[in-house]
Amino acid sequence: MAKVLVIEDTPEYIEMLTSLLSDYEVYAAKEGKKGLALAESIEPDLILLDINMPFMTGYEVCRRLKQMQKTRAIPVIFLTANEGLEYEEIGFNVGAVDYISKPFNTAILKARVKTHVDLYRLQSSLQQQVDEQTKEIQKLNHEITYISASIAELKSKETGQHLRRVAEFCYLFCKFLGKDEAECEKIKMAAVLHDIGKVGISDEILNKPSKLDEDEWVVMKTHSMLGYEMLADSEFEMMRLAAVIALEHHERWDGEGYPYGKKGEEISLVGRICAVADVFDSLLDKRVYKEPWEEKAVKEYFEMASGTQFDPKIATLLLENFDMFIYTWKALQTGKIAL
Fold first, then answer.
1. 3-state class of 98 per DSSP?
2. CATH number at 3-128
3. pLDDT tens digits, one per residue of 77-123
4. I need a labelling partner for 24 at 20 to 30 A (CA). Which of 65, 107, 261, 267 fits?
């Protein structure tokens, strides 16, 4: 049953409207402040609002309703004894959808209430469908991104969860840096593709169980540029961000990294974040060319490399929250945190 909220200071009108609108679940408040609280609580399908009330006018109530997240879309019909186009104009300017003068015609009132309730419920239903479809598209995009990145992981025979763990660590760093949820999620998804350029590196080099020789290392380092070239021309912002991460996650704070030898803040923030996340996971993980490092050794490495290999601010965030990052790494390994 649709819900109608009546905000009206005259008890007789409240009683009359409750009786006339028996097909609806009717709620009532006798003054503006209580009406605002009730509207936010019950989220009605329509609000019938008197203009001339003590403490707070109907215009002010309507203005505040349109500023509140939960109530801004709810249609408001003004009910008032005020006559004149100027009153109607003010009502529409503060966000009302209709204006009915007192004393009102019962049939017209019921017809307008039904029209606006039906329209609002239809709009709400359509918006819900749009939101659900949007979520499905986002899920699909996430899956496509993970599948694309997994090609590189499968090719290199590294654990297939490396890219997801790096993405999760990048998300944590963004949270510690105070980024909003949308920005953290965007960087998380972009970081998944940090090693996509490895699809262009031969299996012999990727999976060599010993140290690469000089020529092989030159080839291996090209994966950063290959990843960038794959992603940079995308129409999608997230993919272009992924291109920057792919290009810069092997740059170093001291300028001794690759491919361009960028230094300090010449390297993008996302590149500096992923550089720490990538090495943190790589050291803890078993690879074809090495055994996993002990946690103590990993911590000591970042203490040593802060300000040389890594941005000291990002490295400090890792060291100050080391136990949380270790817990997250273990939880991702055991499935306690969904990937």
1. strand
2. 3.40.50.2300
3. 998 877 767 777 888 888 899 988 888 888 988 999 999 999 999 98
4. 65
Q: What is the pLDDT of residue 146?
A: 65
pTM: 0.62
Q: Fold for domain 157-334?
A: Hypothetical protein af1432 (1.10.3210)
Element (H, E) at 101: strand 98-101
Distance (Å, rounded) from C-alpha 57 to C-alpha 97? 17
6 within 8 A of 26, measured Cβ to Cβ:
yes
DSSP assignment string, 142-179:
HHHHHHHHHHHHHHHTS-TTHHHHHHHHHHHHHHHTT-
Residue 140: what pLDDT? 60
Break the chain into its structural domains and give their ranges.
Answer: 3-128, 157-334
Confidence category of residue 153, pLDDT binned at 50, 70, 90: low
d(CA 22, CA 40): 22
* Burial 92-119, CB ≥16 within 10 A → b, else e: eebbbbbbbeeebeeeebeebbeebbee
pLDDT digits (tens, 9 = 90+) for 255-264: 999 999 999 9
Rounded CA-CA distance 40/210 in Å is: 64
| Nearest C-alpha neighbor of 299 from the set 287, 278, 315 | 315
Start-to-end Cα distance in the chain = 41
